[in-house]
Amino acid sequence: MSPRTRRQKAAVASQSEESNRSPIRNGTAEKPSKKNASSSGQEVKENIFLFAPNLIGYSRIFLAIASLYYMPLHPRTCSILYSVSCLLDALDGYAARYFNQSTTFGAVLDMVTDRCTTACLLVFLSSAWPRWAIIFQSLISLDMASHYMHMYATLSMGGSSQSHKKVDRSRNWFLYQYYTSKTVLFICCALNEVFFIGLYLLSFSSPTLSPSLLQPAQGEPASVQPGNPAHPAPNSLFASPWSAGALEMARANKIDSTLPWIITGISAPVMAFKQFINVVQLVNASKWLAQGDRANRKKQ
């Protein structure tokens, strides 16, 4: 056999071997087995609970609980922990976009954390100023109701995959601007919390809002009225250190009221606008749900 014939036979054999290895046979691609498909499906399974933005959300909850522990007697520590928890609200959104880990669970966790922490702070303010408790109770109710109805209307009318922050311009101009602009949303949420933190600090420092914080004038005898922190021996009036009167006396005059008055005054207009947005959100969600009810009744 000539060298040329041997080379031709070797080339034919090589081509035949490659065709046998190829996944395409008779013009049809070979389909992967079910075993391989199932194993590849297990590989791409993700743990939503360990996504970066959700881990940040858990840290927010931890900081919020810690701030509640220090809230009755330690205004500086409480304010720092509470503020850091609120600031992380912006970081988890950034992490969700950066790592492409936006999830429905994360969005709900973020909203629930916001609502609960604000409600807890308002509950404390209700106990600090019982005369104005109805105002703080109304703010809690408005905040909870407006956000719940807005999210429910979005999921039921817009679809389960629809985000509550995605608001169409035709629905309401104020809501569109509020949820579309990240700057507007951040400023409103941040200063709303700053206002309530300012009120919280004033409950420790302002005799104008809390007359029981007044100290007796020099040379005057200290009052023995229960709840007056000027009494020299609080244990004689309040046996339990956890009683309301003992807490009032322990927190009296611990900080200066200048800075709390400044931050409360600056943030008050934004807080008022945030409550206006809550009202608009509540009304708009109610109308949207009623629109869906009318459409369903027509179909029936």
From TrEMBL:
Keywords: Lipid metabolism, Membrane, Phospholipid metabolism, Transferase, Transmembrane, Transmembrane helix. Residues 1-39 are annotated as: Disordered. It is found in: Membrane. Gene3D superfamilies: 1.20.120.1760. The chain crosses the membrane at residues 176-202. One of its GO terms (molecular function) is CDP-diacylglycerol-inositol 3-phosphatidyltransferase activity. Pfam families: CDP-OH_P_transf. Residues 13-25 have a biased composition (Polar residues). The keyword Transmembrane helix applies. It comes from the Eukaryota. One of its GO terms (cellular component) is Golgi apparatus. It is a multi-pass membrane protein. One of its GO terms (biological process) is phosphatidylinositol biosynthetic process. Belongs to the CDP-alcohol phosphatidyltransferase class-I family. This is CDP-diacylglycerol--inositol 3-phosphatidyltransferase. It comes from Aspergillus wentii DTO 134E9.
